[in-house]
C-alpha cells in the first residue's frame, strides 16, 4: 500500500484520537473529538481526509458523524472487520495505546513525518500561553506547544523526530492526573523560533489551536480559558 502525506496525517490523527477494538463478537473503529471545540476541525478537515483515503475506497460512501451532547463528543463508530484489517496493514494495532509507535516508513520520510506530526499534535497536542512573570504587568504572551501521551515509546520517537527535523524540544517529568491510570509523557516546544518553525513547516489544521495562535499574533498575547467561539469573536473585533 502506497502511503502519502494524507494517510500519514490520518495515522497521526488516529494515534491521537482514534481507537480500534477487537473481540470475538465485533471489530470496531472509532474516531472523534470534543463537540464544542473540534466539530469544525472534523467537519472541514478530518472527515474529507478520512472519506478520501478510507471510506470511499473501502465502502464507496462517506462517514457519518454523530453528536453526543451528554458526554461532549463528536465522532463516529464503524463496526466492520474490513477497516480494522486496513489499519493493521498500516502497522496500527488494536487495543491499548500504551505501547503504540510511529510506523518506520513514516520515520524514514521527512514529508510523511511532518504530516504525521500535524495529525498527532492537532489531536493529542495543545498550544497555550504562559505569563511573563518578570514583567511589570504579566500577560499570557509566552507560547508553548505541548504533546502528552501514555506511550513512552511514542514520546521517545516524537522527541527524536523533532530533533531530527531541527527543533529543540523539552521533556517534562511523567505525571498522573486525577483520572489517569497510566503515566503521561509530555514533550514541549518552547523556544519562540521553534514555535514559529513548527507553525510554518507543520502547522495546525485544528481550529482549536489555530485560533489561539491567530489571537496571539493579533494581540501579542492570548487570553487563557477562552472557547473557540470567543476566540473567533476576538479575531472579528481586531480585524
Task: Describe the model.
The chain is α+β, with helices and mostly antiparallel strands. The chain is built from nine helices and eight strands. The strands form two sheets. Strands 1-2-4-3 form a four-stranded antiparallel sheet. Helix 1 packs across helix 2 (39-59).
Strand order across the biggest sheet?
Answer: 1-2-4-3
Q: How far apart, in Å, are the first and last alpha carbons?
A: 45 Å
Percent of residues in helical segments? 40-55%
Beta-strand percentage range: 15-25%
Tally of DSSP helical segments:
9
CATH class placement of the largest domain: Alpha Beta
Largest sheet at a glance? 4 strands, antiparallel
Number of strands: 8
Corresponding CATH architecture of the largest domain: Roll
CATH superfamily of the largest domain: Homing endonucleases
Radius of gyration over all CA atoms, rounded: 18 Å
Along the chain, the helix and strand elements come as HEEHEEHHHEEHEEHHH
Please give the domain count: 2
Write down the overall mean pLDDT. 93
CATH topology of the largest domain: Endonuclease I-creI
Helix- and strand-based class?
alpha+beta
